[in-house]
Design the sequence.
């Protein structure tokens, strides 16, 4: 059984979050108040909470770093959704059309290996890193190398 996840995270500007998640990514907006907004991110509930706090590296989270994956440094922490390939390609094009810079351009990693996947990274206006992935076959999601 698949269950949607819930993730709440900090942002410093709700209007920028509303534009990015609603207009750029196309997430339907759910409930909101003057300090938070929830969105439907591909069937999952994400909630942007205005905190006004920024870390020294410019994000609103509790610190940032990176980890090595397939010869690339990826931002830590990050979150996102695993999509089917057609939805992933459509999202990559949508992000490009809105002029959002990629931290990692859309590409295929682990070519020829069991975990082969399409991936892309970009940040929201508050500096939260997002990764969206796709597999040609979802049964490869947890495949071991």
Sequence:
């Amino acid at each position: 059984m698949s269950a949607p996840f819930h993730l709440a995270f900090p942002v410093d500007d709700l209007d920028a979050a509303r534009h990015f998640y609603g207009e750029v990514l196309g997430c339907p907006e759910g409930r909101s108040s003057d300090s938070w907004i929830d969105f439907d991110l591909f069937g999952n509930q994400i909630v942007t909470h205005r905190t006004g706090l920024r870390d020294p590296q410019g994000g609103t989270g509790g610190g940032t770093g990176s980890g090595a994956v397939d010869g690339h440094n990826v931002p830590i922490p990050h979150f996102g959704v695993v999509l089917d390939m057609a939805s992933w390609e459509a999202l990559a094009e949508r992000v490009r059309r809105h002029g959002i810079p990629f931290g990692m351009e859309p590409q295929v990693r682990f070519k020829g290996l069991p975990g082969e996947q399409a991936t892309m990274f970009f940040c929201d206006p508050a500096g939260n890193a997002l990764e969206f992935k796709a597999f040609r076959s979802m049964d490869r999601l947890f495949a071991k190398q």
